[in-house]
Design goal:
Largest sheet: 2 strands, parallel
Number of domains: 1
Helix content: 55-70%
Number of helices: 9
Strand content: under 5%
Length: about 170
């Protein structure tokens, strides 16, 4: 599945995931999603802003906001190997290869697609765990960063990546 969206026309590509994450956190997209996430909620004085940020960034809302940020702000994180450890590089290589195999039609039938999706999910999780551990971010936010890299590689689309995880799996089975 080649991405038909015009990635090559995007004006700002990032190599460094830390720099990209900083841009996202400093964006109006992030601030608006964060404010909406906590709208109408009251907290004890003991709850710090860092705690609130960690909860928000661990939620699906933040992952989806990251995908929208990439789409609407024309800012994309590219996979540039020199910014990552060996374990992440191995995991992301396996993940990209698996998606490419699927796109080449090497998986067929409902059971084959379901098995592929489980395997894809486990590869995505393994890469996300490595990224989460190395960057000190939530697993869900790491999954979002990987999805943005996957979009840049032409292996995913904004529409697909922006879906809830459950809906995404259901669309694969159709």
């Amino acid at each position: 599945m080649r991405n038909t969206e015009t990635i090559e026309n995007l004006p700002q590509l990032f190599n460094d995931p830390v720099e990209y994450l900083t841009c996202f956190r400093d964006s109006a997209s992030y601030r608006n999603s964060y404010a909406k996430f906590y709208e109408g909620k009251e907290f004890s004085q003991e709850v710090s802003e860092i705690d609130k940020r960690d909860v928000f960034e661990g939620d699906e809302t933040c992952r989806k906001s990251l995908i929208e940020f990439a789409r609407t702000q024309d800012m994309i994180l590219m996979y540039t190997p020199e910014y990552y450890g060996e374990s992440f590089k191995d995991n992301i290589k396996d993940y990209f290869s698996l998606i490419k195999d699927f796109a080449k039609g090497r998986v067929s039938g409902g059971e084959g697609v379901a098995a592929y999706d489980r395997l894809r999910g486990s590869y995505h999780d393994a890469a996300a765990q490595e990224l989460s551990d190395s960057m000190g971010i939530s697993h869900r936010l790491a999954r979002g960063l990987i999805q943005v890299m996957t979009i840049h590689e032409g292996l995913d689309t904004f529409d697909s990546a922006g879906q809830d995880e459950r809906r995404r799996m259901m669309s694969m089975l159709r």
